[in-house]
Amino acid sequence: MSSFDFPDDLLQAQRAWYTAYRQLAQEENPSQTTVLRRALQRLSVRIATHPYWATIPGRAPAARMALKQRTWEPGPAKVRR
Fold first, then answer.
1. What whole-number distance in Å separates Cα of residue 80 and Cα of residue 57?
2. What is residue 79's three-state secondary structure?
3. Which of 6, 27, 34, 65 has an alpha carbon 20 to 30 Å from 45's alpha carbon atom?
4. Which is nearest to 23 in space by CA: 6, 4, 43?
5. Whole-angstrom distance, CA of residue 25 vs CA of residue 75
6. What span, in angstroms and rounded, lies between the C-alpha atoms of 53 and 63?
7. Which of 78, 5, 81 is nearest to 43 (CA)?
């Protein structure tokens, strides 16, 4: 298990990113792909600029991988738009 104590909002953002990515991979409607791509961009910025990363100097790359591993849940889900 990870030794990182991720804040709930960061965990939720990463889970939402995976959900939007899965939906985008299956979407055929061009107007919805635009919405999902924008959602991915917003979530990417929220994750990358989260203040948590400043609290673990020198350990951010390992923490980013731990965040991804902890939030990866294969399966269908819907992202809130």
1. 32
2. coil
3. 27
4. 43
5. 13
6. 8
7. 81
